């Protein structure tokens, strides 16, 4: 018997044992039942598939039917509201040294 066939046989046996059923009182059964109430929160929108904290990211998350859209609203030093997760632009751009405490010239 090849190593792969032996592995496949073992996995099939484990799956058969698992499919026998889980006692309704078991912690695993309780966790599986809790998944029915699972809610999806799109932090920064669908940030793995569109630029984070942008309208396309939030629209995509909405299209996918998430339960909640979460965003980070911050005030800049000059009192403007921005939707941005970090305190600086460095992680998401090539801009260095600009933070939420930066005042912009008028």
State the main characteristics:
4 strands, two-stranded parallel ribbon, 106 residues, 32% helix
SS strand fraction = 5-15%
Biggest sheet architecture = 2 strands, parallel
CA radius of gyration is: 24 Å
Low-confidence segments: none
Q: If you average the pLDDT, what whole number results?
A: 77
Give the strand order of the largest sheet, numbering strands 1, 2, ... along the chain. 1-2
Fraction of residues in helices? 25-40%
The coarse silhouette is: elongated
Folded structure, characterized:
This protein is α+β, with helices and mostly antiparallel strands and 106 residues long. The chain contains 3 helices and 4 strands, in the order H-H-E-H-E-E-E. The chain has helices at 3-19, 27-34, 55-63, and strands at residues 41-43, 68-70, 73-75, 81-83. It has a two-stranded parallel ribbon.
